[in-house]
Design a protein that fits this description.
The protein is built from five helices and twelve strands. Strands 1, 4, 5, 6, 7, 8, 9, 10, 11 and 12 form a ten-stranded mixed sheet that branches. Strand 4 and strand 5 form a beta hairpin. It is globular and about 50 Å long. Hypoxanthine binds next to strand 6, strand 11 and strand 12. Hypoxanthine (HPA) binds next to strand 6, strand 11 and strand 12.
Length: 264
């Protein structure tokens, strides 16, 4: 196993269709109290050292409900990461959103059921604030950069995360629509919350791979994978350009998430 010479402050978590970034990098296996994380590769973007972690593994072999979210986020924390930009394939519930669009969610609803959703199962009892669920600084830069690059981007959306691995029923999608959700995916949570619990900035670029169940006749993993692969060069460009502009200094609530989060 390779040892790290430098602290790595920036990371990208890749979703479906975005499983490789630094082509010749040696994979780094980081042990954590929660198990071994998905293999990380380290590279440079414009002088910044950046970690890339494909959450489904480099060959897309880990299903959404089996991803070790705690090990993944803890491993990034352990190597020094302070800011994460993640990517997620999603289905569109909002009829204005179309396959190929990028969406930067501002809020989420968690409908996962079987996942470990916290690092704080013991004392001190810890309640983090998620009034601003995603890092406002990374969100703003992602939106500005996407617009500069001429990409079709939605700058507000509510993401609902389901357990999977099956897709939803049309009735479930109708319920989510009535609750005010715009997009649906299986991997956005608890990742965003776990990052906040360790005071790591986190924002997501979602890309619409399909209309949600009931809004198109049939939904297949093949289709999700094909659209995701088609979108991935644009996604890569957006993430690289955003990381170039992302400052080390943080003026966002994420950096102080544990302040006043404990009763004593
Ligand atoms: N539902 C859940 N997860 C998804 C979808 C969907 O429609 N598309 C891509 N990931």
């Amino acid at each position: 196993m390779k040892t790290l010479e430098k602290k790595v402050e920036f990371a990208i978590i890749g979703g479906t269709g975005f499983e490789r970034l630094f082509k010749n990098a040696e994979p780094l296996l980081v042990g954590t109290p929660f198990g071994i994380a998905a293999a990380i590769s380290i590279g440079e973007i414009d002088g910044k050292t950046v970690a890339f972690l494909p959450r489904h593994g480099p060959d897309h072999s880990i299903p959404p409900h089996k991803i070790n979210y705690r090990a993944n986020i803890y491993s990034l924390h352990k190597i020094g990461v302070k800011r994460i930009s993640a990517t997620n394939a999603v289905g569109a519930i909002n009829p204005d959103f179309k396959p190929g669009d990028m969406v930067i969610p501002h809020d989420f609803v968690d409908f996962t059921r079987l996942r470990c959703t916290t690092f704080y199962n013991e004392a001190p009892v810890t309640h983090i604030d998620v009034s601003q669920p995603y890092c406002p600084e990374i969100r703003r830069l992602l939106i500005e950069t996407a617009e500069k690059l001429g990409l079709a981007v939605w700058d507000k959306a509510v993401l609902v995360s389901t357990e999977g691995p099956r897709y939803e029923t049309p009735a479930e999608i109708e319920v989510f629509r009535r609750l005010g959700c715009d997009i649906v995916g299986m991997t956005g949570l608890p990742e965003a919350v776990l990052a906040r619990e360790l005071e790591i900035c986190y924002a997501s670029v979602c890309y619409v791979s399909n209309m949600a169940a009931g809004r198109q006749e049939r939904l297949t993993a093949q289709e999700v994978s094909e659209v995701s692969k088609r979108v991935s060069p644009k996604l890569e460009q957006l993430l690289i350009e955003t990381i170039k502009r992302l400052p080390y200094e943080r003026n966002c609530p994420c950096a102080h998430a544990l302040k006043d989060a404990r009763f004593r």
